[in-house]
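As agreed, record copied across for absentees:
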Amino acid sequence: MLWPRAVRNRMKTGTDRELVHSYPYRSASPSTLWTELVESAEEEIFLAGYTNYFFWTQVPQFAETVRRKADAGCRIRFLVGDPDGEITRHREEIENVPLSVSTRIKMTLDNLDKLGPLVQVETRLSAPLDAINHVGLSVFRFDDQALVTPHLARLVGHDSPLLHLRRHEAGGMFDRFSEHSEELWSRGIIRSAGVRSQNLR
C-alpha cells in the first residue's frame, strides 16, 4: 500500500465495520429501511423500543408481516414500557406531546392483542427498576442487524439519532446493545395476550 494511513482513515476496520450508517434523526432514515429489515429477518425480530408504536403506523402491513413471520418460525419479541408506570408518567411530562407515551404503548399492546392467541409473539413489560434504562435507549434487532436509538433529553424517538448496525464479530457494538436489551428482557414482566398491564403489577 502506497498510502496505508490514508487508506485506514477511509476504510472501516475492526468493530467500526459494524456501523452501517448513522442518522442525526430517526426520521431521517430511509422510509424503506424498517420494512426491508423486518422483511429480511428469518430467525429473530426483537423490538425493544419503549413504545414500538410506529411499526404499526409506518411499516406497511406490519401486522400481516408479523403473522407471516411467526408462522414461518421466526421468533418475534416485543419489550415495551409499562403504560401505567412511574417512568412512563415522568416521560410524558418531559415530552409534553399530544400522543402521550402511555397512549403509544397501549397502541402497541392493542395491536398485539388483535393478532390473536394463535400468533406466536412474546411480549414483556420492562420491570419497574429497569424502566429508566429502557426509556433512554431503544434497540430494534433483526437477525444480525439492529437499529439503535439513544433518546436525547426531551426529544421524542423520531427526533433522536439512529445507528444502523450489522454484526461482524463477538463483543462488538451489535453485541453490546443486544446484551443490554436481553438483560432488560430477562427481568421483564411477561404479558399474555388480552391481559392489561395493570393486572400484572
Observations:
- The radius of gyration is 18 Å.
- The first helix runs from residue 4 to 10.
